Structures are given as structure tokens and as C-alpha cells.
Recover the amino acids of this structure.
């Protein structure tokens, strides 16, 4: 077979590949002092990769290649854009953090770029094999990055836990995929969908098992309860920029994989995966929010918060599925949520990175009175944390809004109950976000501040915080922007 | 003035404060007086604009929404930037802009620790946007945003500038500062209610799709609702969800427990605005949204609301008698007064709704003034314990005199503003909407009437303890500054208005009556 290759369609991926090669080569020749150039190259690479996306978005064509396994439609464009923006912000956050640690700068950026490459491929994949490659390419480098602070036992623990559970989930995912492939004879989503009605009753248990195993595999990636146990420890131990990346890009990757599979391959099997997602959503929200109430470390708190948000993001899809309604509204809602979540969560991590340099601790107690000696960062912290809590007029309210909207639209008792559980959870969630806000603004600062308390944030970090804050406020006031992206994703193409 | 009528007027009233807050952020921290003047200027301009609205308001068609703007806002969900005022919202809007001016004047020289006027004034201006916006919003999503927007500034006001007394509270291992406890309690209660309110809004949105385009537009939903579009279990649940959101805010018994803590712990200006405006957002929600959109359900829920309202009246009064803290007593009196407002609403008659609106305005003026006075007194005595206070009239004759006057107004003395709301609510309860259970409402009327006696009882008891008699030993020989010019500038207008509304209630009824009658007519075919 010969394939014609649409070079524009793969231009973002190729740009990142080129960036990876440049970083790799450059790293060999740079002296230790100049290693930061690798970071600069990485930032430039990610910025450049956006250009072809804009070109493709402008011409409004849908591109399919390799028998429809690799597709660039609006869904892919939006999510690729999201991955690149998230990657860009994480790179900005990393610059100072990694530089001050003084080792393996080149390798760090290299691995991060590889992960971004994986997520770009993932957004376009319309068959199980490409999906698997994309997903593993996204998470593989993160096993290493999680253990980056190798002198720190916690970082080692983080990497190990993440690795073991990650591999376990990969195994389950693969097992599920192989069952589905065995029964349907196709790895392409469209082929799977067409073959499913022909499956006989005798083989149905195997199909159910296959689908559920895949859901479990994705459940690990998005860190939904009860597959979240790795998340708090890994988040706490990993370098904070990596944690930010884990909680946004890697989680989004898990969601993209899950959404595209259930939406394109299994839309007729809602009776199987619908209840499963319902349970995952309800459990993730409730368990994670209740656990977050007891956290003393700010990063662990954000870890549980990110698990809870995974639950909120599952709500629209789960609601539509259990009610037997069309899934497109759920897809739009979840993607809108993902976009907003990425911006506000990255912002929150950026502030935590900047603030931890001043307070010198990740303990929430240690942040007492932070607002009094770092008012600007204190205000940004309020913006991001309350946005995560979903308080208007910050972007988070719209994420919650579209979630509720989608699940109420689905109707039916099960969906409405899920909405009620989500409503109660958003109140619980507010409590722990507000606790941080309280500590920062309402508790007295320690009598004697350390020298580092006056340390200003670096330019890159400021840029990251500023961009995220502007985005959070603007989207909060004009939420139509994010809804536009969410709606665009429903124009998703199933194969070529 | 065409620009004013086609939406710009209201838009400015809503958003000028928040723009002012941004400008304020740019004024250097050291230039305190520039900050104060700027904030005052902004609030004055907003107040004048609201007066312009009154002047240009066509009272002949008070039932129509005027000065409307209707622009697309979030296309994806069909939500519009739809604003406008009618005879119901106009008095409340003016009350809101007016109280803001007074609050800024008062705070001129009265900063609670840790001072920081710039931050405090910014929060006040943001609060103003939220309050004004809620009263003009004619789109459910817009309403929700403004309704929630008031939480943040108030949360910070209470939490940062609030009462720093240590208290042992149930559920806490160690003693906590009142401000921290009260701030989070206030926020969580309201958030709990509004989360369900949002679900109710969404349910209405989707159900409206059965009758054409899905919509969040309040007038359109009212039109649908009065044609019987929303019925059955669905409507019952939606009303319940909205009820949770609004009842927490009012607050209705038994959801009121955040109120005494929040009002007591808040800084003076915070208490004033909480009592004067924020509570009204809840009762306004009932009148603007719940009743006209879900009239049948309002009819079903009305007896329950009336019963809860009289429980609040009696409970509030009895709780007042058990208080030792002056500010906390005033806070509990709010529970009782809002009980009368809710009783008026529950009757579903034009008399009752008129009563509730004038009750809201009067309560805003009177209780606002009471909180000003309580704040100024605790500023001077450094205590709010009524057992230690006494003889205030002798120590500070002017302040004491105003306090005596306000107490009279609060207990509903005829001729002062507080009278009309209570009297007419009871009148409405005597003859509620046809088909409502007469027994329930007449019993409610009788109990409510007993409540007015109790109100008089605790108010006079408070006045006697605080104002009359001889000053306690600890105050003898100390000189106290009587009301200063900032305080007087803030208080005298309130005193005048209380008298004016008391003598000539048409100031309020003139705007509300037609609108209320039309509302009842549309909803129940009166």
C-alpha cells in the first residue's frame, strides 16, 4: 500500500520531533552553565508547533491519513492546541525550578517534549494501536520525570508508585483492547463500531470484559477513584512542574483516549460503560473531596482536587450514557471543562511553585499570612483556587455550569442524582480551597520571615501565572470562548 | 438621554463600581484620602445614576421592564445580557446604591484592624456590582453570577476585618476566631443553596425547550410559567431547588444559623450591607423568579412558607431575648423581620407583596442604621455586652437619641417606616390568595401579631439596658466622643428616609403597586 502524506497535518508532530532532535544534539555541546538553552529551544518548539494548527483551523478542512487511523478534525485541533498551551505553561514553570536543581536540564526538556509529542499523536488517533502508542508516549517519560529529584526519597517513591501502577493499567488496557480486537476483528474505531452488532450472545461476556478493562485502564490514567491511589504520593514527590503536567496534560490525555474510544467505538454500548462511568464519577468526586479536607500539604491537596475534578469531568458523559441520550452534548461539556481546568490548575501550580520559593514549605500552615508579604501572588492564588472551586466570575464556574447543564439535559433519575451528588461535592470542595485562601489572607504571618520571603518570581514564572490568570478571568466573564472550543469538538470524525 | 434608556444607564450602575475598583487598585497605597474620595465619587455617581433612573422611570407602566438591554452573551447556552428594572426592583436598586454611599462615608474614619482602606474599599465596590447586578438581571445565568458575586467580597470582609474574639465552638478542637468561623459558614451555607438553585435554573431551561427555543430569559419564562408550562413533580422539585437557594439567603428558619454569626463577626460596614441589601437578594428572588415562573407551585408551597415565616418571627424574637451581645441581638431581630417579609410573600396577594417590598426597604434602612449604631458604640466602649453598657443616653446624647429613634422604628411604631411592612403582611395574611388554606394563614396572622408584641418587648429591653439608666462604674469619669460628622452624614439621611416612608409610604408603593398587581394578575389570574 502506498499512502500519500499530508505534511501540513503532521506538521505539529514533526515540529516537536525536530525540537526533540535539536535539544538532544544541543545538550551534548552545551556547557553546564548554558544548559538553559535547551529550555529555550523547547519553549520555541512548542510555540512553533501551534502555527500549523492555526493554519489548519483557518482552512476548515478535515484531514485523514493512513486509512483513517490518523485524523485531524476539529476535535483533534482543539485538543492539540490544549496540549501545546499546557505544555508551554509547564515549560515556563520548569525553567526556574529545574535550573535551581542543577542537573539533567537537557534531558528534562527532552522528556517533556517527547510526552507532548505523544499527546499530539493521541488527539489524532482513530485506531487502538495508534491510541495506545500515543498514550504510552505521553505517560512513559513521566515515569522518569516523576523521579527527577533523585536525592529525595519521596521523589523515588513517587516514580516507583507511578511506574508500577502505570504498567499495571497499561496491561489492563492492552488486555481489554486485545479482547475487543479479537471479537470485532478491527483495531479502527469505525470498524469496531460496525462489528459490534454482529457479536453473538455467547461472546458478549468477553466483550463486556474487554470494554470494562479498557475503562479501568483509562481510569488509572485520569486518576479516577478507585484507581487514584498513585496520584497523591506521586504528585507530592514529583518536581512540582512535573506534577502540574501530570495533573493537566497526562490527565487530559487519559480523557482524550477514553472519550474518543467510547464516543467513536462504543457509542452503542452505553449500557456497559455508562454505569461504570457513573460509579467512577460519583466515587471520584465524593472520596477525593472528603480526603482533600484532611490534607496538610498544598500539593497533596491539589492532587486530591485533581482527582475530584476528574470525577466532575466524567459526569456529563456518565449522565448522558445512563440516560441513554446522545453523547455529543456530554463530549462538548467535558472538553470545555478540560480546557478551563487546564488553565486554572496550571495557574494554581504556578502560584504554588512561586509561593513555595517564598514560604519555603509545602505545608499549608507555613503559608500563613502569605498575602501580607506577597500580595500579588496572594491575589493570584485566590483567583486560581476559587476558580477551581467554581466561584463566579472566574472561569471555573462555567466548567461546573456546562457540566450541570449536560447532565440535567440528559434527564432521568440516575443522571439527576449524579447532578445532586456533584452539587453537594462542589460545596465540599469549596471548603478546602477556601481553607488555603483563609490561611494565606486571614491568618497572621510569622513574626520573623526568612530571607527567601522577598524572593521575586522569575520572568518565566510570572508570564505563566499572568497568562493563566488573564485566561481565567476573561473566560469567566465571556465563557462563550471556551464553549466555542467545546462545541467544535463535537465535529469529530470517525476514521476517513 | 436616549443612551440612558437603552441599557447604558443600568449597565453603568452595575459595572461602574467594579471599574472603579480596578482604578482604585492603581492608586498607591499611601494615598489614602485619594482612595476614599475616589470610592465616594464612584458610589455617588452610581447613586445619582439610579436617581436619574427614578426620574426617567415611567411610573404609569411600572409593571413593564424599563431601561432594558438585551444582548447576546454566551451564545452556546443561549444566555443573554438582559437587564432592566420594573417597579419591584427599582426601590431595591435605589436602596442598594444609596446604602453604598452611606457605607463609604461612614467608613471614612472608621477602619477596623488591619485597616488597609484600599483593599476594603475595593471589596465594597465589587460588592456593589454584585448587589446592583442582581436587582437588574433578567436572565437566570446573569442573575446567578451576580448572586454569587456578592459572596467573595463579603467573605473577605468578614474574614479579614471581622471580629477577632476567640470563641470555643462546637466541632473545633481549639478556640477559633469568630471572623474565620463566620466567614466560611456564611459562604458554605449560601453556596449550598445556590448550587441547588443553579440545578433548578437549568431544569427550567431545558423544560422551556418543550415550548420553543430553550431560554434563560426571565420574562420569557414568566410568560411560559403563567401559561401553565411548568407543572407536576418536575415543577415541585424545581421550586424546591430555588427555595433552597433563596431561603438560605433570606434567611428563613431553619436555614438561618449562618446569619447571627456572620452579622456579629462582620465589620460594621459589612454588617450594614449584609442586613440592608444582601438578605434582600433572597426575598427578591422569590418575587422575581419563583412565584411568577412557578405560580402553581408557589400556591402549593405558600402554606409551608407562611409557617416557616411565623416560626422565624417567633424564634427570632425569643432568641433576641436570650442575647447578651447587642450586635447579635440586632442580627436575630433580622431573622424576625425577614419573617414578616416572607409572610407577606407567602400570601401571594398584592397587599402581601407590597408589604414584603416595603418591608425589605424599611428593614434595609432601619437595621442598617442599627448596625451602624452598634458598630459605633462598640468602637467606643470596646464591648458589645449589654450587661456592661448602660446610660448611653447620658454619655452620648446624640448617638443615644438616634438609637432610641431607630429602636422605635424597628419595633414597628406607626408613622415610621417599619410599621407598613409588618402591618400589611398581617393584613395580607388575613385574606390570602383564593384557594389558600385560610386556617393556616389566619393562625399565622395571629401568631405574627404576637410576634410584633415580642419584637417591641426585646427592642425596648435592649434600649433600656443600653441607653437608659446610669452609666456603669467603669465608664464614669471617662469622656466619650459623641457622633462625629462622618457618622452623622451617614445616619441623618437614614433617619429622614425612615420618617418619610413612615408618613408617606407612597414613595415606595407608587413604584411597586402596579408591578405587584400585574404580577399577581399574570400569575394567578387574580
Amino acid at each position: 500500500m502506498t499512502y500519500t502524506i499530508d505534511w501540513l497535518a503532521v506538521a505539529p508532530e514533526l515540529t516537536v520531533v525536530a525540537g526533540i532532535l535539536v535539544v538532544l544534539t544541543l545538550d551534548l555541546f552545551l556547557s553546564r552553565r548554558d544548559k538553559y538553552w535547551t529550555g529555550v529551544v523547547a519553549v520555541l518548539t512548542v510555540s512553533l508547533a501551534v502555527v500549523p494548527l492555526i493554519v489548519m483551523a483557518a482552512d476548515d478542512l478535515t484531514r485523514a491519513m493512513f486509512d483513517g487511523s490518523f485524523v485531524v478534525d476539529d476535535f483533534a485541533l482543539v485538543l492539540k492546541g490544549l496540549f501545546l498551551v499546557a505544555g508551554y505553561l509547564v515549560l515556563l514553570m520548569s525553567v526556574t525550578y529545574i535550573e535551581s536543581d542543577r542537573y539533567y536540564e537537557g534531558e528534562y526538556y527532552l522528556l517533556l517534549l517527547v510526552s507532548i509529542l505523544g499527546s499530539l499523536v493521541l488527539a489524532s488517533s482513530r485506531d487502538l494501536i495508534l491510541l495506545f502508542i500515543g498514550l504510552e508516549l505521553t505517560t512513559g517519560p513521566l515515569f522518569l520525570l516523576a523521579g527527577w529529584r533523585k536525592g529525595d526519597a519521596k521523589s523515588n517513591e513517587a516514580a516507583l508508585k507511578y511506574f508500577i501502577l502505570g504498567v499495571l493499567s497499561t496491561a489492563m488496557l492492552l488486555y481489554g483492547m486485545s479482547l475487543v480486537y479479537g471479537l470485532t476483528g478491527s483495531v479502527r474505531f469505525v470498524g469496531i463500531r460496525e462489528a459490534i452488532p454482529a457479536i453473538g450472545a455467547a461472546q458478549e461476556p468477553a466483550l463486556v470484559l474487554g470494554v470494562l478493562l479498557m475503562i479501568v485502564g483509562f481510569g488509572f490514567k485520569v486518576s479516577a477513584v478507585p484507581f487514584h491511589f498513585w496520584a497523591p504520593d506521586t504528585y507530592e514527590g514529583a518536581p512540582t512542574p512535573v506534577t502540574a503536567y501530570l495533573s493537566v496534560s497526562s490527565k487530559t490525555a487519559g480523557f482524550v483516549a477514553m472519550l474518543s474510544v467510547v464516543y467513536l467505538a462504543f457509542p452503542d454500548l452505553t449500557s456497559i460503560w455508562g454505569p461504570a462511568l457513573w460509579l467512577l464519577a460519583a466515587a471520584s468526586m465524593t472520596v477525593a473531596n472528603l480526603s482533600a479536607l484532611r490534607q496538610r500539604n498544598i500539593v497533596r491537596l491539589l492532587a486530591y482536587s485533581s482527582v475530584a475534578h476528574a470525577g466532575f469531568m466524567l459526569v456529563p458523559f456518565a449522565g448522558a450514557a445512563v440516560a441513554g441520550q446522545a453523547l455529543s452534548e456530554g463530549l462538548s461539556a467535558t472538553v470545555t471543562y478540560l480546557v478551563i481546568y487546564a488553565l486554572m490548575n496550571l495557574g494554581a501550580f504556578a502560584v504554588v511553585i512561586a509561593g513555595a520559593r517564598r514560604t519555603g514549605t509545602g505545608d499549608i500552615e507555613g503559608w500563613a499570612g502569605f498575602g501580607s508579604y506577597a500580595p500579588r501572588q496572594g491575589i493570584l492564588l485566590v483567583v486560581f483556587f476559587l476558580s477551581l472551586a467554581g466561584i463566579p466570575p472566574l472561569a471555573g464556574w462555567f466548567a461546573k455550569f456546562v457540566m450541570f447543564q449536560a447532565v440535567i439535559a440528559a434527564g432521568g433519575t440516575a443522571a439527576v442524582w449524579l447532578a445532586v451528588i456533584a452539587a453537594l461535592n462542589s460545596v465540599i470542595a469549596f471548603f478546602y480551597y477556601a481553607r488555603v485562601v483563609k490561611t494565606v489572607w486571614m491568618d497572621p504571618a510569622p513574626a520573623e520571615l526568612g530571607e527567601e520571603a522577598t524572593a521575586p518570581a522569575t520572568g518565566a514564572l510570572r508570564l505563566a501565572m499572568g497568562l493563566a490568570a488573564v485566561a481565567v478571568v476573561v473566560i469567566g466573564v465571556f465563557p462563550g470562548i471556551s464553549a466555542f472550543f467545546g462545541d467544535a469538538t463535537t465535529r469529530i470524525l470517525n476514521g476517513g | 438621554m436616549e443612551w440612558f434608556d437603552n441599557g447604558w444607564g443600568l449597565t453603568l450602575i452595575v459595572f461602574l463600581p467594579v471599574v472603579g475598583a480596578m482604578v482604585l487598585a492603581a492608586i498607591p497605597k499611601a494615598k489614602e484620602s485619594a482612595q476614599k474620595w475616589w470610592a465616594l465619587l464612584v458610589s455617588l455617581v452610581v447613586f445619582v445614576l439610579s436617581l436619574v433612573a427614578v426620574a426617567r422611570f415611567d411610573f404609569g407602566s411600572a409593571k413593564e421592564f424599563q431601561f432594558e438591554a438585551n444582548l447576546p452573551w454566551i451564545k452556546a447556552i443561549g444566555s443573554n445580557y438582559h437587564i432592566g428594572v420594573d417597579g419591584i426592583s427599582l426601590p431595591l436598586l435605589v436602596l442598594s446604591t444609596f446604602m453604598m454611599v452611606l457605607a463609604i462615608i461612614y467608613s471614612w474614619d472608621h477602619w477596623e484592624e488591619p485597616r488597609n482602606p484600599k483593599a476594603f474599599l475595593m471589596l465594597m465596590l465589587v460588592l456593589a456590582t454584585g448587589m446592583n447586578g442582581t436587582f437588574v438581571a433578567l436572565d437566570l445565568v446573569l442573575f446567578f453570577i451576580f448572586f454569587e458575586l456578592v459572596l467573595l467580597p463579603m467573605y473577605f470582609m468578614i474574614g479579614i476585618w471581622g471580629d477577632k474574639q476567640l470563641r470555643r465552638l462546637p466541632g473545633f478542637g481549639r478556640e477559633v476566631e469568630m471572623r474565620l468561623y463566620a466567614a466560611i459558614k456564611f459562604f458554605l451555607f449560601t453556596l449550598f443553596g445556590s448550587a441547588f438553585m443553579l440545578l433548578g435554573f437549568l431544569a427550567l431551561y431545558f423544560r422551556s425547550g418543550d415550548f420553543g427555543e430553550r431560554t434563560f430569559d426571565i420574562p420569557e419564562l414568566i410568560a411560559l410559567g403563567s401559561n401553565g408550562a411548568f407543572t407536576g413533580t418536575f415543577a415541585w422539585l424545581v421550586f424546591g431547588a430555588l427555595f433552597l437557594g433563596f431561603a438560605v439567603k433570606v434567611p428563613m428558619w431553619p436555614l438561618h444559623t449562618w446569619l447571627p454569626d456572620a452579622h456579629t463577626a462582620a465589620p460594621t460596614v459589612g454588617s450594614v450591607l449584609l442586613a440592608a441589601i444582601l438578605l434582600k437578594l433572597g426575598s427578591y428572588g422569590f418575587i422575581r423568579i419563583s412565584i411568577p415562573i412557578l405560580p402553581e407551585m408557589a400556591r402549593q408551597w405558600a402554606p409551608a412558607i407562611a409557617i416557616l415565616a411565623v416560626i422565624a418571627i417567633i424564634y427570632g424574637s425569643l432568641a433576641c431575648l436570650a442575647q447578651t451581645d447587642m450586635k447579635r441581638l440586632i442580627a436575630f431581630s433580622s431573622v424576625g423581620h425577614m419573617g414578616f417579609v416572607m409572610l407577606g410573600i407567602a400570601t401571594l396577594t398584592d397587599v402581601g407583596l407590597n408589604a414584603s417590598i416595603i418591608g425589605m426597604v424599611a428593614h434595609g434602612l432601619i437595621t442598617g442604621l442599627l448596625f451602624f449604631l452598634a458598630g459605633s458604640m462598640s468602637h467606643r466602649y470596646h464591648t458589645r455586652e449589654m450587661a456592661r453598657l448602660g446610660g448611653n443616653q447620658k454619655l452620648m446624647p446624640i448617638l443615644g437619641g438616634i438609637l432610641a429613634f431607630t429602636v422605635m422604628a424597628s419595633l414597628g411604631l406607626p408613622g415610621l417606616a417599619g410599621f407598613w411592612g409588618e402591618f400589611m403582611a398581617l393584613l395580607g395574611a388575613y385574606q390570602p390568595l383564593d384557594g389558600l388554606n385560610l386556617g393556616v394563614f389566619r393562625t399565622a396572622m395571629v401568631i405574627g401579631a404576637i410576634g410584633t408584641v415580642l419584637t417591641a418587648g426585646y427592642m425596648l429591653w435592649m434600649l433600656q439596658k443600653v441607653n437608659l439608666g446610669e452609666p456603669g462604674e467603669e465608664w464614669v469619669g471617662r469622656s466619650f466622643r459623641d457622633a462625629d460628622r462622618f457618622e452623622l452624614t451617614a445616619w441623618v439621611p437614614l433617619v429622614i428616609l425612615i420618617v418619610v416612608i413612615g408618613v408617606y409610604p407612597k414613595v415606595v408603593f407608587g413604584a411597586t403597586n402596579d408591578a405587584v398587581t400585574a404580577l399577581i394578575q399574570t400569575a394567578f389570574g387574580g
User: Anything to note?
Assistant: Chain A is about 75% helix and 0% strand.
